[in-house]
UniProtKB/TrEMBL annotation:
This is Glucose 1-dehydrogenase. Coiled coil: none annotated. It comes from the Bacteria. Residues 11-202 form the Ketoreductase domain. Keywords: Oxidoreductase. It comes from Streptomyces benahoarensis.
Amino acid sequence: MTTEHGLLAGKVVLITGASSGIGAAAARVFAAEQATLVLAARRADRLAEVATELRERGAQVVYAPTDVTRPDEVRRVVDLALDTFGRLDSAFNNAGIGGDQNAMHLMDDTVYEQIMETNVRGTWNCLRYEIRAMLENPRGGSIVNNSSVGGLQSIPAAAPYVASKHAVAGLTKAAAAEYADRSIRVNSVAPGTTRSEIIADWFARNPELEPRLHAATPQARTARAEEIAEAAAWLCSDRSSFVTGVVMPVDGGFTMV
């Protein structure tokens, strides 16, 4: 790939939600850092496109369509890593959804249920099976969960999303504390507003939001998905070997103001 000795060279890494947005960007960044990749996402066609692109660029990639809310499917993709490459070294649990913004009293129960099911139960499912695999790995492992600035503070009219991302931050810290002495590190990235298909559509439907968010961000811009992926790659790598239990903002300064 692009460097002789990549940041993730020699590591088998699972990425969920890898068919688009931050997940697809992570697949490209991690491949450039010489990771061996196991990709998972619900959209099989888009997932296959990402895998094919990376293979054509020289990466070693396997993939499986996966709904992280289903434990059997999560177990299957972790088993794919073990059966194909013999171990799992790192994971980026990126799969998640946002949902429409609305006042709490106007939200339908299904909005809450869908967000919590994907963002919290999905992360829970991934952690359990990844940790089981890493406990069998003599080198341990590193897991990175994708939280949000909404996991550090409130976001207007997004109560279920905020609750779910606070839960992801809590799961990160709980797992980090429980497995720190068994060579498994667990951290989280907390992205600010990041350019993706979902965010682009959100801005198109709510054109007043983008300038408001830029005004609230010291760097006065929206992140590129690759910028979030670079932070996740560092946390997955041995360069962050004494870092665990951290929920790291990658937000252009949004949470410091």
